[in-house]
Amino acid sequence: MGACLGSLERLLAAGAAADVFAIDDPAFTANRLYTQVLGSMHLARVGVGVREAAPGVAETFEIAPERVRDACIEDALALARITAGASN
Fold first, then answer.
1. Strands 57-62 and 48-54
2. What CA–CA distance (Å, rounded) separates 76 from 79?
3. Which of 24, 25, 29, 65 shows the greatest Cβ crowding within 10 Å of its Cβ?
4. Which helix (H) or strand (E) is 9 found in, with range?
5. 3-class DSSP state for residue 88?
6. Which DSSP letter does residue 11 get?
7. 59: left (phi over 0), alpha (psi -120 to 50) or beta
8. How far apart are CA 65 and CA 44, in angstroms?
9. Are 63 and 43 in contact (CB under 8 A)?
10. How many CB atoms lie within 10 A of CB 29?
């Protein structure tokens, strides 16, 4: 876990130093991303979500792994807050 977080933290720190990511704390941001992805990977693995069909009545619905993957990418980009420096 430390190696994964360390690699991600270094990548985020380099991006922040190059004004590509608008983040203040690469270690905190790496941990947020890691935690979000853990939950999303579980969602992709089970392929099922839960919603309320009627008050107090739960029902399941199918979730495609590709949808979860796309959402993970969108979340990571939003969390890193890509700046105008990314186009340089």
1. antiparallel
2. 5
3. 29
4. helix 2-17
5. coil
6. H
7. beta
8. 5
9. yes
10. 22
- Cα–Cα distance for residue pair 81/88, rounded to 1 Å: 16
Kindly state the tokens that stand for 27: 């270690």
Per-residue confidence in pLDDT tens, the chain, 88 aa: 888 899 999 999 999 999 988 899 999 999 998 998 899 989 999 999 999 999 999 999 999 999 999 998 888 888 777 765 555 4
Q: Using CA atoms, how far apart are residues 17 and 60, in angstroms rounded to an integer?
A: 44
Mapping DSSP onto H, E and C, the string for 14-78 reads HHHHCCCECCCCHHHHHHHHHHHHHHHHHHHHHCEEEEEEECCEEEEEECCHHHHHHHHHHHHHH
Structure tokens, 10: 């270094």
